[in-house]
Specification:
Elements: E1 2-6, E2 16-19, E3 29-39, H1 41-48, E4 59-60, E5 65-72, E6 84-87, E7 97-101, E8 106-107, H2 114-135, E9 142-145, H3 151-162, E10 166-171, H4 174-182, E11 188-190, E12 204-209, H5 215-221, E13 222-230, H6 243-247, E14 252-255, H7 265-280, E15 290-293, H8 297-305, E16 313-316
Parallel strand pairs: 9-10, 9-12, 10-11, 12-13, 13-14, 15-16
Antiparallel strand pairs: 1-2, 1-4, 3-5, 3-7, 3-16, 5-6, 6-8
The chain binds NADP nicotinamide-adenine-dinucleotide phosphate.
NADP nicotinamide-adenine-dinucleotide phosphate binds near residues 41 and 122.
Length: about 325
Amino acid sequence: MKALYFEKFGDRDVLHYGTVQRPKIKSDEILVKTDYIGLNFADIYRRRGEYHIEKHSPYINGYEASGIVVAVGENVTAQKVGETVLFVDVPFANAEYVAVPSERAIRLPENIDSKLAASVGLQGLTADFLAHDLGKNTPNEKVFITGISGGVGQLLSQILIADGLEVYGSASSEEKKALALDHGVRTVFPSRETDWVESIEGQFATVYDGVGSTLQQSLDLLKHRGKVVFFGMAGGNPIKIDPVALMSESKSLLTGDLWDYLTSYQERKNRSERLFSYFERGKIKISEPTIFSLADGKAAHEYLETGKSIGKVLLKPGS
Ligand SMILES: NC(=O)c1ccc[n+]([C@@H]2O[C@H](COP(=O)([O-])OP(=O)(O)OC[C@H]3O[C@@H](n4cnc5c(N)ncnc54)[C@H](OP(=O)(O)O)[C@@H]3O)[C@@H](O)[C@H]2O)c1
């Protein structure tokens, strides 16, 4: 089968597209022929050697894809051949076929197709746990999201708005700003400038920060007793935090990793159903994903890594 792989960590030039061995499934696994593969910021960290990646020779990146079940192991009862599934936490996804533990496969409801599922799976489940496990905001609270028109940002803002919150955020271009405003965000501030920060300091119950380099700014935006929900560093590493300084204003810092919120079949099912319900109720609009052929993985990494993307970047095998 064809796959996107690399032999050593480094910049995007380490990526190659070529033939590798098709995986063999175990008794509790299913074989999925991938339809759309999600590219995520974590895949960039992994390619650079800055984040956990499963040992494999060669390394095959990627943990998220949708596709068709083409074979099932003898102990599998939850899926059948021919069903469409999504997975968001299974290694070696940058390939035409992936061996998926049955408990990690999420069967899609009829009204969610494989392109939509791969477009919103990992980022949507992230937005869901950030909002409902960490943020836990109550209606009418004011919250701020850095990089609000990124993949997670778009989904998180719409979930929070549907939950009754007043949402503000930052973005780097007029196009990204217009998108967020169209989703119901109150005001969008220019993310690569800082002269607006002082005017809204101390106002927010929660700041959701996945940019990282903005952590001090996020803390400044909080009111006393507020919290930063820190979930990534797309813009660079955060500053070191002094808990004593936080305590003096009763501010808190929460963090979380999606993997720790997807620990069983039931949890994946419940969380994905909650996420899909926002689509079923018409509460979330998404921009068309940008689709690269799996063979053009290098260009896809460049597009995501340099902040050009709006919304999801997908890789399409066999194109
Ligand atoms: N904790 C978890 O479990 C978990 C799970 C999934 C993702 N994440 C994290 O969530 C964050 C967002 O992920 P995503 O998939 O939504 O990524 P994304 O679509 O690329 O969005 C990231 C946003 O960060 C902003 N940004 C600011 N400075 C940047 C820079 N120097 N380079 C690139 N982007 C920059 C960009 O917004 P502007 O250009 O508009 O400023 C961009 O839209 C990432 O840090 C990712 O690692 C965490």
